Amino acid sequence: MDTQKSDMPMARRNRVISKPARTTLDAARSADGLNDRFFRQMVFNLRNGVLAITRDGRIAAMNENAYRVLGLPPRSGDLGRPFSEVLQGCPEVTRILLSAFDSDDLPNRAEMRLRKTGKAIGYTLSRIHDDDGKQIGATLFFKDLTRVEQLEERERLRDRLATLGEMAAAIAHEVKNPLASIEVMAGMLKRQLRDRTDAHETLNDIIKECKMANAIVVEVLEFVRPIQLQVDGVSLVEVIKESITAAESKMPRGTIQIDTIIDPDVPELQADEHQLRQLFINLLTNAFDALGGKGRIEMRARLEAGDEDQLMGVDPPAPQVVIDIRDNGPGISADDLERVFSPFFTTKPQGTGLGLAIVRKVVDAHDGRINATSAPGRTTFSVTLPVVPSTGSNQGV
Ligand SMILES: Nc1ncnc2c1ncn2[C@@H]1O[C@H](COP(=O)(O)OP(=O)(O)O)[C@@H](O)[C@H]1O
Ligand SMILES: [Mg+2]
């Protein structure tokens, strides 16, 4: 008796819930003239990826975002085609869709990485029921989380650098003073031993090594020091011009030709001029190194519309300036290319491996991106910086 009592209200409650929901929708449809076309537009205009399949395995809906995130070319003829055919190359997505028909436990806010595009997506899987409660299909809602992941990674790096940085900065300061003393004393000794030319060579070597060790300490300090951005209006033409002069003073340019092409619509940037100069100097000195005194460097800047991936709820996407720094040197091997931005990665006997790590840090602090591609005779570092109005606040990294 007891069991019956408790079962009854449950069943009644279920019936009560499902009925008005459908009635409300029907009423709304007839009252506002909402037809299938409206719902179709709604699905296709969602800013998430939407992918729906029918019980018999055909594509019922797939919006543009779904194609983009999955890395598939959009084709209008895909509606009605078997989803296993349309989603070829995305077996993990096919598997998830299928699980909607045979699993009781549907994932809500799950995440996975797409093998085809390398993108990380967050997704929710839902069943589609008809009026009688029969399952007639499944829908996958998903969002590209790659940018979110990048921001989280940046946050982690920021934390790690903050702790490590304090320690490294303290050590670097301690080392800097004795280094300077050694250099000064070697100079004094050289003067005292004016007649002992045999000793001069050794003393010159000591001075040279001191200078080099000091340069490493300065770079380490530059790398670990938290950036306090001093944001102001910056003319890219000016910064690039000054960076070329500064790079030349650091390293002989030889006969290297440098072409600077800045599109006239590239606006003034809201950025830290000193940091940007540092960024270009590091990229230029690397190109000088790679070219060994002869060759060509091209610096090109253009304005681009912001990409959707950057949206993150900000509407519309901010335009961005892309600066390509290209040289026709020997290039970087595929293996090395993956590591060039890592601190202390260098292929040079006298290198610190911090130049590009600093470049990336500066780009991150400006909420930009950096990308490197290379083939023999064509190495390009692309820096993308958002064009945003100044908020006036300084940002620590
Ligand atoms: N334009 C370039 N052409 C070829 N190799 C490059 C170029 N820029 C960077 N690299 C490679 O990336 C490595 C790391 O560069 P960087 O971080 O500036 O450190 P470093 O210059 O001290 O070696 C270099 O040692 C070099 O192997
Ligand atoms: Mg370098």
What does this structure look like?
The protein has 397 residues and is of the alpha+beta class. Helices cover 47% and strands 20% of the residues. The strands form three sheets. It has a five-stranded antiparallel β-sheet, sandwiched between helices. A five-stranded mixed β-sheet has the order 7-9-10-12-11, covered by helices on one side. Helix 6 runs antiparallel to helix 7 (197-224), helix 8 crosses helix 9 and helix 9 packs antiparallel against helix 11 (355-365). It is elongated. The chain starts with a helix and ends in an 11-residue tail after the last strand. Mean pLDDT is 85; it is low at 1-21, 310-314 and 392-397. The protein binds adenosine-5'-diphosphate and magnesium ion.
Please give the structural blueprint:
Blueprint: H1 2-32, H2 36-45, E1 49-54, E2 59-62, H3 64-70, H4 83-86, H5 91-102, E3 110-113, E4 120-129, E5 135-144, H6 146-192, H7 197-224, E6 231-234, H8 236-250, E7 257-262, E8 269-272, H9 273-291, E9 296-304, E10 320-327, H10 334-337, H11 355-365, E11 369-375, E12 378-386
Parallel strand pairs: 7-9
Antiparallel strand pairs: 1-2, 1-5, 3-4, 4-5, 6-8, 9-10, 10-12, 11-12
The chain binds adenosine-5'-diphosphate and magnesium ion.
What tags apply to this protein structure?
single chain; about 400 residues; alpha+beta; Beta-Lactamase; Heat Shock Protein 90; 3 domains; 11 helices; disordered C terminus; binds adenosine-5'-diphosphate; binds magnesium ion
